[in-house]
Amino acid sequence: MRKFSDDFMMGAATAAHQVEGNNIYSDFWTMEHLPGTVYKEPSLDAVDHYYKYKEDIQLLVNAGLNTYRFSIEWARIEPSKGNFDQNEIEHYRQVLRFCHQNNVTPIVTLHHFSSPKWLISEGGWESDSTIEYFGNYSRHVVSELGELIPYICTINEANIGKQIEKIMKRMMAGANEKKSVKKQESVDVQVGLNVDLKANMEQYYRALGEAFGIDPRNVQTFISPRTDNGELIIMKCHEKARTVIKEINPNIKVGITFSLYDHQALPGGEPFVDKEQHEDFLNYLPFLQEDDFLGVQNYSRKIHGPDGVVQPDENTRVTKMGYEYYPEALGNVLRFVAKHWKKPIIVTENGISTDHDPDRVEFIERALNGVYQCIEEGINVIGYTYWSLLDNFEWQLGYAQTFGLIAVDRSTQTRYPKDSLSFLGNIKKAGLHGLKV
C-alpha cells in the first residue's frame, strides 16, 4: 500500500481573528460592536488561542501531525499607522519557535481577512496607498521573524471580494424578481461570510461610516464587494509583499491562496463554468508567475446548467453551512489548477462544519483519497492543512459553526479533541493504510 511521503506536510489551519481573541484594533472588532451590526455575536475572547497556542499546537503534535498554518494579525503588529508593537512581534516569535521545537512546519499567512482599523479609515482595499502600507507591514514582520518562517501566504483568498460581489448581484437579481433566496445562496462564500440582504443595511452602513470616520460609501474592508481597481490593488499588494520578502530572505517560499469551487457543467452550462473558472482563478495567473507555491482552498462544488447555478434539491446531503457534502470536489479542483500551474500546491483549507464527527472523518478520508490520487497522477501537491484546528469564530455567523478538529467549551476554554483529529494524524503517521485508493 502506497502512502504519503514522509516530508508531506499535513496538519490544520486557523486565522488569528477567529481564534486569538480581543483583536481590538481590527476592522472586524469595530464592525462586530456597531449598532445594528450584521454579526450574530462579537468575537470577544474567541477561543483564547493567543494564550493557549502551546496547548493547541501540542494537541496537533500529539495526534501525529507536522504542519500548522496560522495568520499573523496586522492589527496587533501595527495597531496605529507606522507604529509597530514589539511585544506582539515577540508573541508570534514564541509561536513560531514552539512550532520548530516540536518539528511542526509553520505556514504563515500575513493577511487573513481582518485589517487594522486605521487602514480602512485611510481608504482600505480600494486605495492605492494600501499597497505601500502592506509592503511596510510585510517588511517589518519578515525582518523580525523571517528566519523562523519557511512558507508565507501573503493574502488569504485573494478572490473573495469578487466572489462576494457576484453573490450580491445574484441576490439583488433574485430580490428584484421577487424570488425567495435559498439557503445555499445566503451562505454562498466558502468562509461563512453571510451576506443577508434582509438586514437593515442603511442603519448599519451609517454606523460603519461613523466608526471609521469616513463616508460609509468609502468603507472598503477586505471582504467588501470589490471593483476591478480593487482587484488590481490586492494583486499589487501581493507582488509588493513578495518582492519585500525575497529581498530580505530569498529562502522563504512565497505564495497566495484562492477560494476555488469545483465548477461542474450540465449540458448547456459549459459557458458558465468557463466564466467562473476565469474569474475565480485564471484571471490572476499573470500576477503569480514569480510565486513559489499556490494555496488551494475548497469546500464544495457548484453545478451549472443552461440558466446558471443549479441549487441542490431537498434530498442533497449538505453540511451545517449549507454546502453540498462533496469531498471529491478537492481532487477535481487540484486537477483543474494543475492544468495551469506546474509549481507546488498546498491545500491550505479544506473541511466541513458538522456536529456529527463521523461525517468529518468520512469527509477527510474521501478528500485525502482525492489528494493522494492527484499525487499519483503527477500533480505536485506538497501539503494539506484541514480547516480548522479548532471550532472558532466564523465571522458573521458567530460561534455556531463547527469546523474544528478540536471542540472548545468557551465558558471554560477547555479543549476537547475530536476523533477526527486522531484520524487525520493516523493518516499522516501511517500513510493511506486502510483508505480506499
TrEMBL record:
What InterPro entries does the entry give? GH, Glyco_hydro_1
Coiled coil ranges (UniProt) are: none
- One Pfam match, given by its short name, reads Glyco_hydro_1
Asked if the record carries the keyword Hydrolase, the reply is: yes
Q: Which UniProt keywords apply?
A: Glycosidase, Hydrolase
> Which branch of life, at top level?
Bacteria
Q: Which family does it belong to?
A: Belongs to the glycosyl hydrolase 1 family.
PANTHER family per the UniProt record, alphabetical: GLYCOSYL HYDROLASE, LP05116P
Q: What is this protein called?
A: Family 1 glycosylhydrolase
Which species is this record about? Neobacillus driksii
